[in-house]
Task: structure prediction
Amino acid sequence: MRREEGVRALLARVTNEPIIANLGPATADLFAAGDRDANLYSFGGMGLVSSIGLGVALAAPDRRVYVTDGDGSLLMNLGSLATIAAMRPVNLVLIVWDNHQWAETGGQPTHTAWGTDLAGIARAAGIPRVAAVSTIEAFEESLDAAAHEDGPWCIVASIEEHGRAPRPRVNIEENLLRFRRTFGT
Amino acid sequence: MHWADAIIDGLRAHEAWTVPYVPDAAGWQVVGKLVDDPAFTTVAATREEEAVGIAAGVYAAGKRAAVFMQSSGFGNTVNALAQLCIVNRIAVPLFIGMRGGLGEFNAAQIPPAQAVPRILDALSIPHYAPEREEDVAGVVDGALRLCYAGRAPVAVLLYSTLVGAKSEA
Result:
């Protein structure tokens, strides 16, 4: 499957649910497929979106909270999986677009290219609902389950990298304020 | 009032109900009292930048958090503070248990602690260090006000002169 297919599938299933996107391809493709108030984009802070998503999930327990991370970024913050497992926010859905490379810096292979199994790490960390998918059909099936069944979820989507949408022109401060307003703040 | 209780009162008054932390002896005098308090959600993080990221998420969702960590691990937060909190204007109060000062027995604690104020200065993050117990309430209240008004990180440094030096065991 391709990342942009996955992004479209996710957008088709949300209304006001927050989506927190990793820097680079995750942010660019989300912006291109459907800019919306409840999207929080990233332009720095690599590795932190799973932690940000945990914070959002704890602060807004009445909403499903989606995070779209990358393999390189999650590998920077593997401890986050253990913390998510310990806190067990049932409303958190961590999606990993695993393209097996650092796409933003020239496509250098990440450790998943050499066999590291992020879904296996998530399971071993204690995340109760983990799915490893590589087709859009399987991804959509996991998303549908994650929308209704208690998590926390970690869905690792192995994707073929075909490049990303152009870098979005976003006012970073305004993006944060717009995102906050979706929570009535 | 004990300095730790003064900090807790400040967190309550400013509704900073989520407390991500990496434990240290000083901060735990505060966080340890919050673990079983139903008003607070404490979150044990595996590293300091993770704690900052969680606090940033809480703020992004319209609520407030306060991070507790030790000086030895503060350096781990530089990317999270610079590229996430400062750029996005995310208000995250930092409570840093300062080792490496009066009474320090562990040489490894000294260089990172001495770097903390200079790193904060380099990031233009205001920092305050109450020296006497009676100053804590005012400093914490002022720091939290500043943090939320400025929508940016602010640090409160807890030195051994206030919290006592950790004893060598």
Notes: Chain A has a mean pLDDT of 97.
